[in-house]
Every structure is written in C-alpha cells, then in structure tokens.
Amino acid sequence: MKTVESEVPFGDALLWWIDHLHDDHGLLVSQLSHEFDRSYLAWETVRLSRNPFFSNGTGFEGYWVGLCQSSDAALDQLLQLGRGALESQARLFRYREGYRRRLARALQGEGSDLEAMAEWSIELGAILGRLRCNLYKNPQAGTFRHETYRQVEGLPPIAYREEQDDLQQMYEVRDADNPAQPLLYVDPNHLRTTDQEAWDVVASLGKFGHPLVREILSKRR
To answer: Considering only CA atoms, which of 189, 186, 212 is closest in space to residue 21?
Structure first.
C-alpha cells in the first residue's frame, strides 16, 4: 500500500467555501465529498502506481491499454488531448483574452477562481465521456478500468486536516506489480513549446476531478 500526503488542490479557496457552505447550510462538505472518493482514488491509482506507460503519469493512460503499444504512442495521444482542449478554448473564448488568462492561472492551481475551475471541470468531464465511449471498442482498456476499480474497493476514504491556511489530505493507493517494461519519464522541457502547453493541460486536469472540488462546484450552482 502506498500512502500519499499532499496539499489539496486549491486548498485555501476550498477552505473558504467549506466554511461558507457550513455556516449557511450546515453542510460538512468534506464528509459529503466522500461519494466521489472511489473515482478519484481510481484515477490516482493509475496516475501513481498502476500506470501502464509512464513513471509520471496523468491518470488518463488506462484508456489506451490495448490501443497504444508503446509509451511514445501513448504520449502522442495525451498531447492530442491537451492540444484539443486548448484549441477548443481558443475558439470558444476568442474575444475573451482576460478569461483565457484566468483559465491558465486556474490550470496552474493559482487563485480561487471558481468559474475558471468549473470550466476546466467541464472540459475534464467531456474528455472522459469521449474516452469511455471508446471502451466499447477496446475491451482491454475496459478490463484495465474494471480491475483498477476493483483494487480501489476497500481503501479508506480520503482524510483531510487543516494546517493554518492550508488543507492537507492523506489517502492510499495499492502498490502495482512490477511493469513488464521500463516506464517512460516525460520531461516537459524536452517537448516542443506547443507540446509543453498540451502536456501541462493533461498533467493538471485531474485536480479538477478532486472530490472536494467537485462537491464545492456542485453546491454553488
């Protein structure tokens, strides 16, 4: 078992919203959010310990089991996802340069812009929806996903603690078997500039699926 201890993404902003929702509605958001733990722990299991291609994965990689025969091929798929997300936002917000800057800051985990966080959360959901449709044509990826969720069963819920103005988390993922081949480490500095931006997107999108982020975004609608 591997224990992960880290700051919660957007922890300072989420602390404010948790207190606000609790004061206004008596909602203990950190408890309610546990309904999203299973999907997030499955994501983190792929990203951290069960990644079929990379030693520094993103969480998306399981969808290309059976489709990509090498880490380089999987990286191409990841970069296509990132480029597609950036191109979509460039079209949607062509005349809103200030809002695009807000999206860029949110992607880097900066600030407390819930509108920008919600936009990235929608983007993540749309990408995952498309990838899940492909599982019907790729049974190996479907099997990998099923096994990942099976491994997540029985893991303890994510634990939170407040440290001054920071929100910390602790959770566990299961150790994976040793891979049959060495995993690729993706160094963004070795990618082309445009590909670095695409990598930043896919490497960062997972935080918009964090249980507390999902809970806060759902409660403020």
So the answer is: 212
